[in-house]
Design goal:
- By secondary structure, the protein is an alpha/beta fold.
- It has a seven-stranded mixed β-sheet, with helices on both faces.
- The longest helix is centred in the C-terminal third of the chain and has 19 residues.
- It starts with 10 loop residues before the first helix and ends with a helix.
Length: 394
C-alpha cells in the first residue's frame, strides 16, 4: 500500500492517487487481491495478527488489501477517518443500524427515502424493536418535534430519490448535536465530488457504490464513512462478525471508478442541466424536479451546500401512468431500468418500480405520483437524449 497521500489534494487527485494498493512488485495500475485467506510465517505471528497486536491480513471477509484501498480512498474523498465497505448500499444501511442501535431505540427519517430503505426500516429493523418516524425532509421544525428521548439516529437522503428534494445538512447537524443524536446522510446521488456531508456536520455518510462510484453499472457494493470509533471499531466489528462484506473484485472496480469520478460527475451535471431546461419547455411536462433550475424551491440551498446539481432529473406528465408509460415505451436509446449512475441514460417509473413496494399512502406522502418519470442522465450527447425522449412527449 502506498501510504503517502496529501489530504489537501483536490478531489480529482485524491480519486486517482489516495491509498494506491501497490505490492512489492510496484505495479502502476492497482492490482486486485483475489484470495480468501492469508498465510503467516509462524504460529506466533498468526496469534499476534489475530489479536491485533501486529499488522496483517487474516481473512477477506474483513481484511483484504484491495477492499482496504477502496475504503481508505473513499474516506479521504469524504473527509472521514474510517470507511467500511459492504456488499451493497442496503447492506451499508443495515450494518450501520445493527452496529449502533439496540432494542427500544428510535430513528427519525425523511419521508422521501429510497423505497428499499423504507422497507428495511419498517419491515426488518422494526422486528428488532427499533421504531422509525418519518417527517418532511425540508421541515426542520418537524425533525426537531419528532425527536424522542430514545431517538438515536436522524437519517436523510439528500437529494431525495426521485424528487430531488433537499435537506439542509448543516441545520440538521445542528439539531442532532443539540439533541444528542447522530445524523446519517445518504450521499448516493451526489458523491463526495459534489457534496461532503461530514464537512457540514453529519456523523455518517452512506453510499451505494453500485451507482456513480462504479459509474458503468457493473458491480454492486456499498460503504459507510465516519469516525474511527463508531465506524472504524463498531461498524467494522459488526462486519467482522456478521460478514455483509464487499468482494475484492468489486472493490477493485470501485477503486478504478473513483479515478474518473470527478470528471464523470461534472459531465453528468452538465447533461442533466441541459435536459432539465429542455424538459421545462415541453408542453406535456407539468413540472420538472431538478435543483439546478431556478424554479426549484431549494435552488439556493443547493448552491450553498453542493458544488453541482447532480445527474438525476424527474418530471411529472399530465395523463398519469398512461402518459408516463407511453413516454418510457417510446424510447429507443435510453435504457428502461431502475438503476442509476451509469454512463448510459436510464429511465424508470418510480411508482411501479423503485417505490412500488411501499404503500400508496407512503408514496403519496413522498409526492410520488403516477405521472412521475425519473431519468438518470448519462454521458451520451445530450441532443440524442432529448431526441429519444421527444418521441413520447409529442
Amino acid at each position: 500500500m502506498n501510504e503517502f497521500f496529501d489530504p489537501d489534494w483536490g478531489y480529482s487527485t485524491l480519486g486517482v492517487r489516495a491509498a494506491e494498493p501497490r505490492t512489492e512488485n510496484r505495479e502502476h495500475s492497482a492490482s486486485v487481491s483475489l484470495t480468501s485467506s492469508y498465510v503467516f510465517s509462524s504460529a506466533a505471528e498468526a496469534e499476534a495478527v489475530f489479536k491485533g497486536e501486529a499488522p496483517g491480513y487474516i481473512y477477506s471477509r474483513f481484511t483484504n488489501p484491495t477492499v482496504e484501498a477502496f475504503e481508505r480512498r473513499l474516506a479521504a474523498l469524504e473527509g472521514g477517518q474510517s470507511c467500511v465497505a459492504t456488499a451493497s448500499g442496503m447492506a451499508a444501511v443495515l450494518s450501520l443500524c445493527l452496529a449502533l442501535l439496540k432494542q427500544g431505540d428510535h430513528i427519525v427519517a425523511s419521508n422521501g427515502l429510497f423505497g428499499s430503505t423504507i422497507n428495511l426500516f419498517n419491515n426488518v429493523i422494526a422486528r428488532f424493536g427499533v421504531a422509525t418516524s418519518y417527517v418532511p425532509m425540508a421541515d426542520l421544525a418537524a425533525w426537531e418535534a419528532a425527536i424522542r428521548p430514545n431517538t438515536r439516529l436522524l437519517f436523510v437522503e439528500t437529494p431525495s430519490n426521485p424528487l430531488c428534494e433537499l435537506a439542509d445538512i448543516a441545520a440538521l447537524a445542528g439539531i442532532a448535536r443539540r439533541r444528542g443524536v447522530w445524523l446519517c446522510v445518504d450521499n448516493c446521488f451526489l458523491t463526495p465530488v459534489l457534496q461532503q456531508p461530514l464537512r457540514l456536520g453529519a456523523d455518517f455518510v452512506i453510499h451505494s457504490a453500485t451507482k456513480y462510484i462504479d459509474g458503468q453499472g457493473r458491480c454492486v457494493g456499498g460503504a459507510i464513512v465516519g469516525d474511527a470509533e463508531r465506524v472504524g471499531k463498531d461498524v467494522f466489528g459488526f462486519m467482522r462478525t456478521a460478514g455483509p462484506c464487499m468482494s475484492p473484485f468489486n472493490a477493485w472496480v470501485f477503486l478504478k471508478g473513483l479515478e474518473t469520478l470527478s470528471v464523470r460527475m461534472n459531465a453528468h451535471c452538465a447533461n442533466a442541466q441541459a435536459l432539465a431546461e429542455w424538459l421545462d419547455e415541453q408542453p406535456a411536462v407539468e413540472r420538472v424536479h431538478y435543483p439546478g433550475l431556478a424554479s426549484h424551491p431549494q435552488h439556493v440551498l443547493a448552491q450553498r451546500q453542493q458544488s453541482g446539481f447532480g445527474g438525476i432529473v424527474s418530471f411529472e406528465l399530465s395523463g398519469g401512468r398512461a402518459a408516463a408509460w407511453k413516454l418510457i415505451d417510446s424510447t429507443r436509446m435510453v435504457s428502461i431500468t431502475a438503476n442509476l449512475g451509469d454512463t448510459r441514460t436510464t429511465i424508470t417509473h418510480p411508482a411501479t418500480t423503485t417505490h412500488g413496494r411501499i404503500t400508496p399512502e407512503a408514496r403519496a406522502a413522498a409526492g410520488i405520483g403516477e405521472g412521475l418519470v425519473r431519468v438518470a442522465v448519462g454521458l451520451e450527447d445530450v441532443a440524442d437524449i432529448k431526441a429519444d425522449l421527444a418521441r413520447g412527449l409529442t
